Structures are given as C-alpha cells and as structure tokens.
C-alpha cells in the first residue's frame, strides 16, 4: 500500500520494481491492489455525496432529551465538555465554526423554498433516500409520482383485518381529520411503530384505494419510516 | 431544571456540531441505509453525551467517539433482523417500476461501488471506510479498532483485493 501511495523511499521503490519485473504473482497482486485502491478512492468521494445528509441538531436533540429524561442525565457532562473546549485553540476554532454556521444559515434561509413551511414536506430532507418525491398529504389527490416521501402527524394506528396489515393514519395537522393518508405497513421488521401524536416521515409507493367504503390515498407499502418528533 | 436543560442542550450541541459530519460519514457508510443510519447516529451521540462525565482523556475525544460509533454500527448490524428492502424487491417489475429503472451509467457505477463495499465483511468494510471516507492514518485506525497498525494494513490489503474481485464484472463502468 505504501508503494501504491508513493510513500516508499526511491531506493526501496526501485527494489520493489525490480522484483515486480521478475515475479508475475506479485505483479498481479499489485494490479489487484491498485484497482481496489482506486475503487476505495471512488467510494470515498461517493460517500461525501450531499444526498446523504446527517440529521439536524434539533432533530437529534428532541429524541435525546426524551431519552435523558428516561435514563438520567450525565453528571457534569456540560462542564467537562466546556472545559475541553476552553483551550485558546478550541475557542478560536469554535468562533470560526459559529461564524461559518451563521453564514451558512443565512445562505440556506435565502434558498429555502416557499413550500417548506410548517405542515409541509421538508424538501431539504427528501434526498435521504434517493428517487423519492416529496409530496404533502394535501397533494396526494393531484400527485402523479409513484415513489413518494411524505410527513405528517399520526392520528391513529390500527391493524386492518381485511388487508392483514398495520395501518397508520397520517394527517397534515394535529386535531384536523382532513386531509389524511393511510400508510400501510406490510412488514413490521425494522420499523418502529409510532404513537399517536408523533410526527413521522414515511417512504413508500403512492396508491389510491378505490374499494367500497374506502376511497382514500395511501402509501402502500411503507418501505421506511422515521419518527421525527415523539 | 430549565437552566440545567439549557446547559445540557448547549453541551450536546457543541459535541454534535464538532463531530457530526465525520461520524455520520462513518455510520452511513457502514450501515448503508441513511434512514437506519440516522437511528445509529442518534444512539452514538446519546451514548457519547451520557458517557462524557466518565471520559478520562486517556484517548482523544475524536477516537473515543469513533469507538462508540464503531460499536453502535456493529450492534446495529448484529441486531438488524430484516434488512432494508428496495422497492423493486417488494412490488416486482412492471410499468410503474420501469419509470424508476436505473438507466444512467453514473448511477449504475455508484450502485456497483456501494454494493461492492456493503457486501464486504464488516471488518474489511470498516477499514475501507476509515481509510477512504474518513482519510485516517494507520495509527489512528489502530487506536479506533483496538489492534496494531500492521493488522490494520493487512486487513486493508485483503479488503482491497476482495473489492477488486467483486467489482471485476463492472470494470467497464468504473
């Protein structure tokens, strides 16, 4: 690897090259390593793809805060951390970080689309799973996309005997029964069942259930779900 | 109580903002599915935050958080009963799916690369991610993985040979 990355002294590199000229086995191994190394580098660039974005602090903190209430808060955690961060270099780095964040926030707020308001699908989160179109619950009636991601508040969770699947009724705003969409979960493996009142983001296929007594829009099957607020 | 909560949130914010991006890159690359990676990331920072009081500065904070992330990814992959299933695998082929078919060569290249790395055994995948995504040295990797640098190097060599073998059918794409 050091040879591949040019990290070998010239004298040693010459020795290696001389050996490679005479040893077919090592030459083949090096070619495979070089190819794997190049693939690794390509993967490294791919992993920094902006389509994969970590959740915002507020999203993580909301769940962490609730967990801390259940499991207890850390002793002097804030003090230890602040002590760690109070060295002059860390303070300077923190100032730079805060200023950078402020500039980015201003840029972001200027670019935020008009639909990204309360109750709407947060389009900036949508690329989490590629190829899913953000659709508001109210937009399902005019939606033509098949793979969709939507967000809403859980109004009801029940097992549908007819469909033999779990149904989650999502509404756009709490205490408002309309508009709604039924999210049909066929396979519970890996999915956390949300409680009524929580806000969730659901990925799946958009369909219309035209059976008598139904006549509603649905996400069926639900392929992935994230609880945004418990 | 409210003041304490604000203090906690502030400490957590600092920790999160300082380490979020590199830990996210590690977690999402190891777990594969961004949605599940969000849960793992949440657990990593929750455990890091709770454990900060007991952190003894015997290793760097960076190494310590990476080790938590390493353990959380490993636990998650061990406990995951049902892997994330792509849409096509559930609804099968059809006109609707044709619209979503990957036709772009660039997408196919990315998919081949991701699949090849994700199919590597965990230990191999981890060194590939630490080396090429996190850009860490052998010494840093050895601290995180808890093994000598020589072991890291030989594991990486085996991983690259394995990666080359898995990507051989897609050579024209890469």
List keywords for this structure.
heterodimer; A: alpha/beta; five-stranded mixed β-barrel; 5 helices; B: 174 residues; mainly alpha; 0% strand; globular
Shape of chain A: elongated
Poorly predicted ranges of chain A: 112-128
Overall helicity of chain A:
25-40%
Q: What is the count of DSSP helices of chain B, taking H or I runs of 4+ residues?
A: 9
Q: Over the alpha carbons, how many angstroms does the gyration radius of chain A reach? A: 26 Å
The SSE order of chain B reads HHHHHHHHH
* Morphology of chain B: globular
Quaternary form: heterodimer
Q: CA-to-CA gap between the ends of chain B?
A: 56 Å
Strand order in the sheet with the most strands of chain A: 2-3-4-6-5
Classify the secondary structure makeup of chain B into a structural class: mainly alpha
Supply the helix-strand structural class of chain A: alpha/beta
Overall pLDDT of chain B, averaged?
77
Describe the structure.
The complex is a heterodimer of chains A (230) and B (174). Chain A has 230 residues and is of the alpha/beta class. Chain A is 37% helix and 23% strand. Chain A has helices at 10-22, 24-47, 57-71, 77-84, 88-111; strands at 133-134, 147-160, 165-171, 180-185, 199-209, 216-229. A five-stranded mixed β-barrel of chain A has the order 2-3-4-6-5. In chain A, helix 1 packs across helix 2 (24-47). Chain A is elongated and about 80 Å long. Chain A starts with 9 loop residues before the first helix and ends with a strand. Mean pLDDT of chain A is 75; it is low at 112-128. Chain B has 174 residues and is an all-alpha fold. Chain B is 75% helix and 0% strand. At the A-B interface, helix 2, helix 3, helix 4, helix 5 and strand 5 of A face helix 1, helix 2, helix 4, helix 5 and helix 6 of B.
Condensed summary:
The complex is a heterodimer of chains A (230) and B (174). With 230 residues, chain A is of the alpha/beta class.
């Amino acid at each position: 690897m050091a040879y591949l990355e040019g990290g070998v002294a010239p004298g040693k590199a010459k020795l290696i090259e001389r050996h490679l000229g005479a040893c077919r086995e090592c030459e083949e191994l090096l070619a495979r390593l070089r190819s794997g190394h190049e693939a690794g580098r390509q993967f490294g660039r791919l992993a920094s793809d902006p389509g994969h974005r970590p959740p915002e602090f507020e999203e993580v903190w909301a769940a962490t805060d609730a967990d801390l209430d259940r499991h207890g808060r850390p002793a002097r955690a804030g003090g230890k951390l602040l002590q760690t961060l109070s060295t002059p270099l860390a303070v300077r780095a923190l100032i730079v970080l805060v200023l950078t964040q402020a500039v980015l926030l201003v840029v972001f707020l200027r670019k935020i689309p008009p639909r990204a308001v309360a109750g709407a699908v947060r389009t900036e989160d949508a690329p989490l799973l590629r190829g899913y179109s953000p659709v508001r619950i109210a937009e399902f009636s005019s939606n033509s996309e098949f793979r969709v991601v939507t967000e809403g508040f859980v109004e009801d969770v029940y097992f549908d005997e007819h469909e033999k699947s779990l149904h989650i009724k999502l509404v756009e705003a709490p205490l408002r029964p309309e508009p709604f969409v039924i999210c049909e979960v066929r396979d519970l493996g890996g999915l956390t069942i949300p409680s009524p009142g929580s806000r969730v983001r659901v990925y799946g296929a958009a369909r219309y259930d035209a059976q008598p007594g139904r006549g509603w829009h649905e996400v069926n099957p639900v392929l992935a779900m994230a609880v945004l607020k418990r | 109580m409210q003041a304490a909560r604000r203090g906690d949130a502030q400490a957590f914010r600092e920790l999160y903002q300082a380490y979020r991006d590199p830990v996210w890159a590690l977690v999402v690359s190891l777990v594969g599915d961004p949605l599940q990676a969000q849960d793992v990331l949440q657990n990593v920072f929750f455990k890091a935050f709770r454990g900060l009081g007991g952190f003894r500065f015997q290793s760097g904070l960076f190494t310590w958080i990476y080790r938590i992330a390493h353990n959380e990814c490993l636990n998650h992959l061990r406990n995951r009963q049902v892997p994330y299933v792509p849409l096509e695998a559930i609804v099968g082929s059809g006109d609707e799916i044709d619209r979503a078919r990957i036709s772009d060569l660039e997408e196919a290249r990315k998919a081949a690369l991701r699949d090849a790395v994700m199919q590597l055994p965990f230990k191999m995948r981890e060194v590939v991610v630490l080396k090429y995504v996190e850009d860490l040295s052998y010494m840093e990797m050895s601290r995180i993985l808890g093994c000598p640098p020589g072991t890291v190097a030989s594991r990486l060599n085996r991983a690259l040979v394995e990666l080359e073998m898995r990507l051989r059918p897609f050579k024209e794409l890469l």
